[in-house]
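Incident log, structure service

09:12 report received: a user says their structure output differs between two submissions of the same chain.
09:20 pulled the input from the user's history:
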Amino acid sequence: MQFKDIVGQRDVINRLTEIIDSGRVSHAQLLLGDERDGSLALAWAYMQYLCCSNRVHHAEGDLRADSCGECPECKKIAQLMHPDLHLIFPNATTDRVKSNPSCAEFQQEFRDFLLSQQGLGSLDAWYAHLGIDNKQAMIRELDAAYIVQTLGMKSYEGGWRMLLVWRPSKMNNAAANELLKTLEEPLPRTLILMVDEDTEDMLPTIISRVQIVRLKAESTDRRRENAALFAPLLVEWLRMLFKLRMKDLSAQVEKLAALGREQQKQFLGYALEVMQECFMQSAAGQRCNLGSGDEKFDAMFPNMITVNNIELINDALNEALFAVGRNAYGKIVFMELSFRISKALKKR
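09:34 re-ran on a clean worker, output below:
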């Protein structure tokens, strides 16, 4: 997971990369934000950047830096298979684990879930993936003991020991109390990264021991403005990509290239947001409310965005956004983007 794959949150991302580059990483942090704003995906990308051995810094554009995505560390974290990355999350008994459930029993299921959802899955989607229906999932003493034991050992690869705790609000009091000393006095080069929506159900003693990073919620008014301005253009363009008649496509690219540079960036950002929401509907079972004004499009298009093509689409749109930010020739950018999106849609 790279920062470029995350919609929005540029101010937060740039602040985090500055902190990492300066070597002032707090050992215990809490990312607060809705899954739809990318809180879990951001935590994933943060850990990848932290471990990356060849970080990329941009002189232009709205993203100051990112992980390279190619070094061994990046590839391991992208697949959630780094030996120094440990995952903690709510769990419960299942048909396979009938007693004493713990995160250790469900590591592969959680990796599969994160990979399939690209870090955008909700708590309900995780419960459905695990097959626990209406059971009360939580983080228990067994999980806290695993945390204490794991973070007390040396790292396998001599770098950072990383603990991702998803939804610490689901931690029971016994587990939270057992974790307190570890939060206060971890070994050097330890990162305990927690991700949740709010602090309402968390112990004050936990909250007081972490550095809180709040994600920026997308403005509802801004979303409405973008939908009103760009939805008809986006729908027309996407429909054209299924037919790829060059004469019609060239005319559509002319329209997109005729937008001002800032509007081109806003259009691409809006397209990224639409693709993410479509993916959440098709992969996570969440209702997608695109509000494009075209009911047929809103009903049918989300099914075109799947785990097979969301990464290709994200990459294409983010690279186009970066190119526009560097004053690339609009017609070339949008023509190349059209071909890439058309090809990706066929991989559903």
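09:41 both user submissions now match this output. Likely a transient worker issue. Closing.
09:42 reviewer note: Residues 220-345 form one domain. The chain has 14 helices and seven strands.
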